Amino acid sequence: MLARSGVDVKLIGRAPHVTAIARDGLLLDGLRIHERIPISATTSMAEGLRDAAVILFCVKSVSTESAAREIQPFLATDTTILSFQNGVDNADRIHSAILAYPIPTAVYVAAEMTAPGTVTHTGRGDLIIGHHAGWPRRPDLQLLAAMFDQAEIPCRISDGIAADLWSKMVMNCAYNALSALTRAQYGRMVQSEPVRDFGVRVIAETVAVARAEGVPLSEQDMVEAALRLAEKMTRATSSMAQDLARGRPTEIDSLNGYVVRRGKVLGIDTPASEILVAMIQLLEESALNQRSG
Amino acid sequence: MLARSGVDVKLIGRAPHVTAIARDGLLLDGLRIHERIPISATTSMAEGLRDAAVILFCVKSVSTESAAREIQPFLATDTTILSFQNGVDNADRIHSAILAYPIPTAVYVAAEMTAPGTVTHTGRGDLIIGHHAGWPRRPDLQLLAAMFDQAEIPCRISDGIAADLWSKMVMNCAYNALSALTRAQYGRMVQSEPVRDFGVRVIAETVAVARAEGVPLSEQDMVEAALRLAEKMTRATSSMAQDLARGRPTEIDSLNGYVVRRGKVLGIDTPASEILVAMIQLLEESALNQRSG
What we know:
2 copies of one chain form a homodimer. Helix content of chain A is 49%, strand content 17%. By secondary structure, chain A is α/β, with parallel strands linked by helices. In chain A, strands 2, 3, 5, 6, 7, 8 and 9 form a 7-stranded mixed β-sheet that branches. The A-B interface holds A 178, 181-184, 188-189, 192-195, 197-198, 271, 274-275, 277-279, 281-283, 285-287, 290 and B 178, 181-184, 188-189, 192-195, 197-198, 271, 274-275, 277-279, 281-283, 285-287, 290.
């Protein structure tokens, strides 16, 4: 979307995607848009990051530290990093790893690489950005938001990005693991009363941990938001289901796993989250073994 | 095993298996035995059941009534039917469908058709038979047990087969759905504390329903038996996992689903069983859709 709007974009990715994109452009198979977009792509950090003003940091939470260290040699002092990741602690983790001050971003999108060089986009596609509390209030978020808006990516600036990240976290915690276990679309999941009730328990646990961390979410608001999400993304399946289908590690550790760990520290019981984490860990192990075995 | 011991056995099954068995015999890839066993096989009920003295009724619980009606035309008055099925009500269901008096049988075995005409046998292989309470006490169970024992299939005669069926039901309820959701082997499942705890909750609910039905199982005995089962069948995965992998309907309705339904009638809460049923139903639907779609 940025490249389409005239921004100079370079993609850094794995060889099969880079080869396909170099040959045919990026095929965006979207909700309104079906286009081949000519765009530069490379597997090389050095090449991709040369003179980068803005880096969209879009790696799975399991790779946050390693990816941060990989880009570190190519950062200028004024390079802006946006953490386009799930979870609530990735900006902190990037900071701990390389002392950068990334912009925490809540990304709402349902999309999948369905073939080399092909993105299938099935839901939403909007951003919330904000300054991390206690960090330098630079760069100017207005400029970033304007760049996204111009590219038809709605981008809101938040005064309390932690609450926005946690709100998205609650949605991920409610849907991702259950969708991966049942391989069901969100719309179908909420039609099942026991699955919906279980999701509500997971939301309650996640909200309790958020509140203990000083982020005053409302459980009722979150439950309503989750039900609206299922309406809006009826046919979506979670990125976790996609990871498992590909025999890749999931982000469970940064989602329900984070809730369980923080719950233990804060003295909050999280039994529903715990069983989800345990089941996904087994499924992950089985999926990896079946790929390799 | 029966055919190996000299019993005249006919298999009735689907065409791919029948063709392979007619050509090469049945390949038994077992724990101690690896043999090709010459054995007659057919897809035809008429041919397979002609002059049958004993029928081993080995169909999934979802097909109990339809299979019973299919065999009905070929039954003699003294044909013995053994229900080799999961669940606790299949003998009753066969009786309701065709007025026969099948012998309820608890089958303990881990086995799978891994290729046309190939059985892979990975655990146990023993039977418990008994007369259904309130039904005619014929045929002579000693003769049946002797036939199995001679074929190296340990067979115990029980005075209270309902308790044996329920004991096996508890094991199935504890393992099958969780193993299907996590695609994990039993040995691995019990190593995960939250999964083990969840299994214990499912056992408690199932035992409570059994007791309300007049079958006085002990929760502690059942938990211990479940842990022993995992030791004995470390590498087993459930038949439910196999069904889902093949895009076939599962037996959830006769297992945890039965517990939930009877629990509702008897006023017993079964929340852990309920969420398992709901998740397996979604997974079943997804698996079927993915096979057909």
